[in-house]
Every structure is written in C-alpha cells, then in structure tokens.
C-alpha cells in the first residue's frame, strides 16, 4: 500500500506551485487531478506516470465525491506514490478533509501539501488587497456553492453587515443572489464589487461594479471566477499590475 499526497496546485499560475508540491508530482506513480489544476503541471510528471481526471464543474461532475474518494483509495492499493492534485488549497473548499478521513478509515497513509489559495492570490494578481490599513482589518472567505441537499442556506448572511472584505469562491452562477442578499441585510447598492475570471493566468479579466450593477457587467465571464466585495476593490486603480503587464 502506498502513500497519498493531498496536494494543493495553487490558483492557476504554474509558478505559484510550491517546491514541495513539485517534488511529489515528479515522484508520483499516478496523479489524480481536478478541473482547476493547471494542466501544464502534469508535464512535470515522470515517464510512465498515470493520470486520472476527476474534475467537477457546476452541475457536471465526472465522478461524485464518494467515488473520487474510492478512486484515490484504490490507486493507493496499487501504487507507492499517489498525488491527489487539487486546485488552490486542499482545505479551502477543496474537500481535502473528506478525502483524508476516507483514507484514514481504510488505513492508508496520507500527507497534506498546502497550496496557495485563490482566495488571496487571485485578488492580489488583480491589484486588490484583501486587507489594507485604514480600509479593513479582516476578510471572510465564503463558498458560493452550497449543498443542494440543504433545506436552508448555510451562509450566515446577517453576519456580513460589517465592512470586512468578503471573498466568494465558486459563486459566479449565484452572483445575482449574492448581491441581492447583501443589499437585503443593509449594504449599499453602491458598495464596490469585483469579479475576477481565470485569475493568475494570461486570460485573467477583472470587472468592477457595485452590488447593483455587477451582475449585468460580469454575468458572461468564463469560470473559474472569484467575487470580491468590499472597499478594498477601490484600490485596484492604484495597485493593478498583472493585467497591465499582460495587456
């Protein structure tokens, strides 16, 4: 029985992959990867490495999570080094904890390798700091994709009345609902919002608006996309660097 490395692939730019992640990718006998992991990373694998795609997109899953867990386990029975490559970080809405528990219950050794989360890196590439002195001292990271099995929202909207920066991951398909709920709890219709598509890649595009206007401006952007809500969005004009360099 081998060992599984539950590995964060980072936010998209291959140069943001960690040294440790790159080392195990080069040692891997099999790499089980998802949709958000940059496919260029797979070119770093050794000759003979197997690749298993288990990507998931909204309303379209190659495999449900329960079967992905089993795929990882079965490969651990056959290979010495198994890399489960996940976009971003395994613990930031990556379901890495579920995969780790599944392996522990079956006696499989595993290790987590953190990845740079898109929640911080993508706004940073867009010139939007998640915190900034005199603007905000905290930020929240919220899933934009809730379980369809729940009878009510898991998101505590009433807690978001403060001026924290709010980052929604996987929320583009619910952008109108997110804006509606934030206005409903008392945020101004003019509150600044940014939607960043394909962040940290050459295809990155950022759209700026308000809670009232952002849906119409950004609804046709391609995924993956990240939503930033907060006064820090106004700093982009001064701090935008990546998109200007790639213009």
Could you walk me through the main structural features you see in this protein, from its secondary elements to its overall organization?
There is one protein chain. The chain has 247 residues and is α/β, with parallel strands linked by helices. The chain folds into 2 domains: 3-113, Tetrapyrrole methylase, N-terminal domain (Cobalt-precorrin-4 Transmethylase, domain 1), CATH 3.40.1010; 118-245, Methyltransferase, Cobalt-precorrin-4 Transmethylase, Domain 2 (2-Layer Sandwich), CATH 3.30.950. Helix content is 26%, strand content 23%. It has 8 helices and 12 strands. The chain has helices spanning 19-27, 65-78, 96-105, 118-125, 175-184, 214-218, 236-239, 242-245, and strands at 3-8, 30-33, 50-53, 56-57, 60-61, 81-86, 109-113, 139-143, 165-169, 192-197, 205-210, 225-229. A 5-stranded parallel β-sheet has the order 3-2-6-1-7, sandwiched between helices. Helix 2 crosses helix 3. The longest helix is centred in the first third of the chain and has 14 residues, at 65-78. The protein is globular and about 55 Å long. The N and C termini lie far apart (49 Å). The mean pLDDT is 94.
């Amino acid at each position: 029985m081998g060992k599984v490395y539950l590995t964060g692939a980072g936010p998209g730019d291959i140069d943001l992959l960690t040294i440790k992640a790159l080392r195990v990718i080069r040692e891997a006998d099999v790499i089980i990867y998802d949709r958000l992991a940059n496919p260029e990373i797979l070119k770093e694998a050794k000759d003979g490495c197997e690749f298993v795609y288990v990507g998931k997109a909204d309303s379209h899953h190659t495999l449900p999570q329960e079967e992905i867990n089993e795929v990882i386990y079965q490969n651990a029975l056959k290979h010495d080094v198994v890399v489960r490559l996940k976009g971003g970080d395994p613990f930031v809405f990556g379901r890495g904890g579920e995969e780790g528990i599944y392996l522990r219950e079956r006696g499989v050794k595993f290790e987590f390798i953190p990845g740079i989360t898109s929640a911080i890196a993508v706004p940073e590439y867009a010139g939007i700091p998640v915190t900034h002195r005199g603007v905000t001292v905290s930020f929240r990271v919220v899933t934009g994709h809730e379980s369809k099995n729940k009878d009510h929202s898991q998101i505590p909207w009433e807690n978001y009345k403060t001026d924290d920066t709010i980052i929604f991951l996987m929320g583009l398909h619910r952008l109108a609902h997110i804006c509606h709920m934030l206005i409903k709890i008392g945020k101004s219709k003019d509150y600044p919002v940014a939607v960043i598509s394909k962040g940290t890649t050459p295809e990155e595009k950022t759209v700026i608006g308000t809670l009232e206007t952002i849906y119409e401006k950004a609804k046709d952007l391609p995924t993956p996309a990240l939503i930033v809500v907060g006064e820090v969005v106004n700093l982009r004009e001064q701090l935008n660097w990546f998109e200007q360099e790639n213009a």
